[in-house]
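To fix ideas at the outset, we first show an illustrative case, written as a sequence plus integers encoding its fold:
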Amino acid sequence: ALMVAISTLLNFIQEARSTKAADALKAMVSNTATVLRVINDKGENGWLEIPIDQLVPGDIIKLAAGDMIPADLRILQARDLFVAQASLTGESLPV
């Protein structure tokens, strides 16, 4: 019974440490998008980097290689575009 209690305690401590480490890594990764927004009182537009949870319908975003944006969007202009849809289609190659 003592061994089970010690094992359970060590498992709990290890799980707490790994959760803390995972949360620290999430905080270090910036989930941002480059979006076209009004940047001054004159109504001039400019590119701003904002957190992805602040995206709203109608935003114009600029994507670069490797960007991942969890949002629906319409492609206005593209050059050499590949989209990884594996999570949606199950295909292993980019479409």
About this structure: DSSP finds two helices and three strands in the chain.
